[in-house]
Amino acid sequence: PNVPNPFSGTTMLRFDIPKDVHVSLSVYDVRGRMVKNLVDQDLTPGTYNVGWDGRSTYGESVASGVYYYKIVAGSWTKTKTMVLVK
């Protein structure tokens, strides 16, 4: 899960990787449009913390509201909800 949630400023997304695998972690708006790709690389086993500061790929602050983050690690996929409050 991301902490804090809801958040204002920055939230941290924590995940564990049990084996070497390619990981993608992206943030989407409620319309399903990608807001920002936070991770897109091969990772080794371990625990990772990735921050999102409420900015898009282009560095623009996004609006308050519900956002989704999706992590794909090999064949495993998980989508969770987070709320940005300004």
Describe this structure in words.
It is a single chain. This protein is mainly beta. 0% of the residues lie in helices and 60% in strands. The chain has no helices and seven strands. It has a four-stranded antiparallel β-sheet, with no helix packed on it. Strands 1-2-5 form a three-stranded antiparallel β-sheet, with no helix packed on it. The mean pLDDT is 97.
Write the layout of secondary structure elements.
Layout: E1 2-3, E2 11-17, E3 21-28, E4 34-43, E5 46-52, E6 65-73, E7 76-84
Antiparallel strand pairs: 1-2, 2-5, 3-4, 3-6, 6-7
List keywords for this structure.
86 residues; mainly beta; 7 strands
Shape: globular
Q: Please count the beta strands (DSSP E, at least 2 residues each).
A: 7
- Largest sheet, spatial ordering of strands: 4-3-6-7
Helix content: under 10%
- Rg over C-alpha atoms, rounded to the nearest angstrom: 13 Å
